[in-house]
């Protein structure tokens, strides 16, 4: 199924008659032709490149250790360079890991503990939620790594929330 959101649209019109059509650049086209007009309009739909985004969030309690930061990364054609979070406590002040993808190409998004962190990723529980303004269903994405093959018009945005696991004590 195709969605209009998958395409950008341009309109160009010409006329060999007296009515000016130079300001017509979008649908719907509204023009009142007069005698002698020969109006021709072309609508061009261009597939929008998909975008992928992975944002970091921290649950109640924030980081286990003050030095803990996370590296967000992806693989696949054109995937951006990995980014490392910034912030302290439960605050993540860095931008999302985001890039323009290639439709029909498989991508994997993931996270790891950044260099210098003192905790391990296994000490955090992970919850993943995703949304999309395009045609690819992301409702089943609930954990990392995220594997997705976006389509034209997708704007897939995922958030991984890490919450410190309760400590365990063995006697």
Give the overall pLDDT as a whole number. Answer: 93
Shape summary:
elongated
Low-confidence stretches: none
- What's the order of the H and E elements? EEEEEEEEEE
The major beta sheet can be summarized as: 4 strands, mixed
Ends apart, CA distance between termini:
59 Å
Number of strands: 10
Query: Per DSSP, what share of the residues sits in E-state strands of 2 or more residues?
Result: 35-45%
In angstroms, what is the radius of gyration? Answer: 24 Å
Query: How many H/I helices?
Result: 0
Widest β-sheet, arrangement of strands: 6-3-10-8
Class derived from helix and strand content: mainly beta
Gist of the model:
With 171 residues, the protein is mostly beta strands. 0% of the residues lie in helices and 39% in strands.
Write structural notes for this entry:
With 171 residues, the chain is mostly beta strands. The protein is built from no helices and 10 strands. A hairpin with a 7-residue loop joins strand 4 (70-75) and strand 5 (83-84). The protein starts with 6 loop residues before the first strand and ends in a 7-residue tail after the last strand.
